[in-house]
Amino acid sequence: MKGYVVCVYKNISDQEKLMKYAQRARIAVEKFKGKFLIRGGRSISNEGEKSPRTVVIEFSSFEQAKAFYQSKDYQDAHTILKDHAERQFQIIEGT
Question: How confident is the model over 24-43, as pLDDT tens digits?
Fold first, then answer.
């Protein structure tokens, strides 16, 4: 089964840091052969609070998605965003 990273942002306090993070994170996504399915864009919130940004990335397996998150490349990118955004980051197995 495939693995998906689903990242729903609650708030973003520094757009510049977000862009730097995104550039570095993309390198890790590509290294682990991930495919962006959703990366921001227009949205409608029908229930609950509206999120300023949602990202969904598809990987070939759940294990590959976990390896991406745990990789040095991604963790280096993640430190750029620390204290500049609040989000929920999940790895989900699916079809």
Answer: 999 999 999 999 999 988 99
- Could you tell me the domains of the chain? 2-43+52-94 (3.30.70.100)
Per-residue tokens: 4: 């998906």
Asked if residue 8 lies in contact with residue 88, where contact means CB atoms within 8 angstroms, the answer is: yes
pTM above 0.85, yes or no: yes
DSSP 8-state symbol, 93 = E
Beta partners for residue 15, in sequence order: none
| Sequence-distant (≥ 6) Cβ neighbours of residue 27 within 8 angstroms | 73, 77
